């Protein structure tokens, strides 16, 4: 695996190469990330990954400071997955002019709900760095995990906005045996909080399994209580149209639906979702 720290060296390596798959990450890699790498390996001649903890997408400095850095383990996992190249830039490499004057992206409705509402500026920061990474890599296919459902929709919007002919592959969420979605943030959970964290998955299943017999309002109230009893501070339990993320007040059999949850436990904010 080749490791590049500058865009110029990366572009030299990629010059003339076709069928390139790309997996952008912030490191602290786990099986979910590696599943994306493997998906790319099965469909492309070259597969690359980036590791960059992007400061412009954190609206909580403490969250940024505590984000886990596990580069030695990350390298081992990527080598075992036969990743072809890793882009490992510094902040100064990606933001040579600093982070004061950055592009504003028009994200419309997607930036006003759920993660957009609770984390102002987050998605603009995501778009800034993803655009920069795509310019550097120029991949044929971009691989993302469905756990970050709203972010996937934002990046789909970004691809249309910037006009890059890049195929977007959204891969299923990987879960531990008890249902907890694999996430880098799980590393920060205490032993007790890790056990309680499965309440999010249980709530998603509860809503999915009972949508035929109960109103969303009733199931929402039950899940809010379940999360609170497990030690969570819930931010939202939302029902939405899975295609455009329009928020629904009740179940709608006329469209595909998705339930999305965000809640904090042990000072760690977790998100998850499930199509129902």
Notes on the structure:
38% of the residues lie in helices and 20% in strands. It is α/β, with parallel strands linked by helices and 276 residues long. It folds into two domains: 2-171, Rossmann fold (3-Layer(aba) Sandwich), CATH 3.40.50.620; 189-268, Pantoate-beta-alanine ligase, C-terminal domain (Pantoate--beta-alanine Ligase, Chain: A,domain 2). The strands form two sheets. Strands 1-4-3-2-5-6 form a six-stranded parallel β-sheet, sandwiched between helices. Strands 8-7-9-10 form a four-stranded antiparallel β-sheet, with helices on one face. Strand 2 (20-25), helix 2 and strand 3 form a beta-alpha-beta unit. Helix 7 packs across helix 8 (149-162) and helix 10 runs antiparallel to helix 11. The longest helix is centred in the middle third of the chain and has 16 residues, at 122-137. The relative contact order is 0.13. The mean pLDDT is 96.
What's the shape?
A: globular
Strand percent estimate: 15-25%
Distance between the termini: 40 Å
Helical stretch count?
Answer: 11
Helix amount = 25-40%
- Oligomeric composition of the shown chains: single chain
Sheet with the most strands: spatial strand order: 1-4-3-2-5-6
What radius of gyration results from the CA coordinates?
Answer: 19 Å
Report the strand count: 10
CATH superfamily of the largest domain: HUPs
Low-confidence stretches: none
| Average pLDDT metric | 96
Question: What name does CATH use for the topology of the largest domain?
Answer: Rossmann fold
Q: How many domains would you count in the coordinates?
A: 2
- CATH architectural name of the largest domain: 3-Layer(aba) Sandwich
Q: Which structural class matches the secondary elements?
A: alpha/beta
What is the string of SSEs from the N terminus onward? Answer: EHEHEHHEHHHEHEHHHEEEE
């Amino acid at each position: 695996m080749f490791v590049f720290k500058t865009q110029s060296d990366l572009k030299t390596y990629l010059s003339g190469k076709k069928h390139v798959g790309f997996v952008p990450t912030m490191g602290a890699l786990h099986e979910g990330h590696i599943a994306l790498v493997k998906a790319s390996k099965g469909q492309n001649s070259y597969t690359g990954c980036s590791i960059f903890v992007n400061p412009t997408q954190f609206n909580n400095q403490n969250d940024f400071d505590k984000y886990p850095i596990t580069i030695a383990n990350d390298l081992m996992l990527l080598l075992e997955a036969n990743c072809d190249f890793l882009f490992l830039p510094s902040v100064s490499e990606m933001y040579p002019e600093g982070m004061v004057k950055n592009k504003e992206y028009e994200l419309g409705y997607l930036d006003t709900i759920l993660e957009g509402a609770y984390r102002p500026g987050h998605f603009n920061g995501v778009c800034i760095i993803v655009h920069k990474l795509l310019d550097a890599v120029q991949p044929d296919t971009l691989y993302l995990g469905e756990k970050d459902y709203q972010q996937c929709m934002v990046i789909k919007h970004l691809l249309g906005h910037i006009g890059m002919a890049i195929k977007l592959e959204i891969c299923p969420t990987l879960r531990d045996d008890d249902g907890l979605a694999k996430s880098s943030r799980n590393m920060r959970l205490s032993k007790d909080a890790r056990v309680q964290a499965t309440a999010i998955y249980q709530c998603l299943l509860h809503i999915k399994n009972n949508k035929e017999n109960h109103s969303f309002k009733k199931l929402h109230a039950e899940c809010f209580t379940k999360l609170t009893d497990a030690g969570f501070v819930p931010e939202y339990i939302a029902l939405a149209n899975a295609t455009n993320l329009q928020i629904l007040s009740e179940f709608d059999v006329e469209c595909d639906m998705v339930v999305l949850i965000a809640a904090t436990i042990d000072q760690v904010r977790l998100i998850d979702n499930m199509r129902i």
